[in-house]
Amino acid sequence: MDQAVRDRFFKKVSKRPTKKGCLVWIGYRTKGGYGTFSISKRRCTTAHRVAWEFENGPIPGKLWVLHRCDNPPCVRVEHLFLGTPQENSLDAKSKGRLPSGADHWARRRPDAVLRGARHYLVAYPDRVRRGSSMGQAAKLTDQDVIAIRKSWRALGRNKLALKYGVHEVTIHSILTGKTWGHLPLGDYDPAVAKILSPHRRTRRRLAAFKLTPHKVQTIRQMFHRGGITKIALAKKYGVTDATICSIISGKTWAHLPVGD
Ligand SMILES: [Zn+2]
Question: Which one of 74, 101, 128 terminates a domain?
Fold first, then answer.
């Protein structure tokens, strides 16, 4: 790595070691306390990884750079060592870094735990599988199937699903003839059914925020083509800057080509 990058890097490192000898990152830090650094326009990663690479060259494979000192912002190379993610969590557990007991989020933020009227089971009783729909699929009879195919216009897919205690997809399969193909089909029109039974808004919103391999590829391509910032991408896909950073650096979704 060239000298200009090193200079830029060490400008963000504290000159004075802590009591334990840590040299900490004074630049931008993630929520977890790790420093972040952009080696180039294309590559942004955590500062301690960069520090390790300055000294030792590229990090082999999918290994993590871990802290002996247990101090996330520390970039002192003597305090860093390579390990697997499994070793990291074992290490965290042995050092008591993983929150449990009184530190667990459910204890610290009891207000955030959904209870009572906000609990899933109470808020969405219709989505809870019960009785014959529990475990194994509800048993539909030939008569049920014929009735479903006759009444889809009147009820719509989701009301039918509730009425018969099956999933909406099951109703859809029945209506398209994918299942129960030996019985008469009726006049099912998926386009009309979609209008009759639109998906719930919340579900659609959640789906939009969920990253797919396709979205990840698009994010990488858009970024590498240039003209769009990480912040703009984060906004566009409803994720955090750190998520975009990890995608672009290949820290996450590593099984897909990074294109770097
Ligand atoms: Zn340290």
Answer: 101
Q: Kindly state whether residues 184 and 213 are assigned to the same domain.
A: no
Question: Is the pLDDT assigned to residue 232 strictly greater than 70?
Answer: yes
Å from CA of 80 to ligand 1 middle: 8
Question: What is the residue-averaged pLDDT of the chain?
Answer: 79
Instruction: Encode pLDDT of 89-101 as tens digits.
Output: 677 666 666 666 6
Distance 240 CA to ligand 1 centre (A): 27
Residue 66 reports pLDDT greater than 70: yes
- Cα(217) to ligand 1 centroid in Å equals 36
Q: How far apart are CA 218 and CA 122, in angstroms?
A: 38
- For residue 75, the model assigns a pLDDT of 96
Task: Determine the distance separating the centroid of ligand 1 and the alpha carbon of 87, expressed in angstroms.
Answer: 18
Residue 42 CA to ligand 1 centre (angstroms): 27
Query: In sequence order, which residues have a C-beta less than 8 Å from that of residue 55 and are 6 or more positions away?
Result: 77
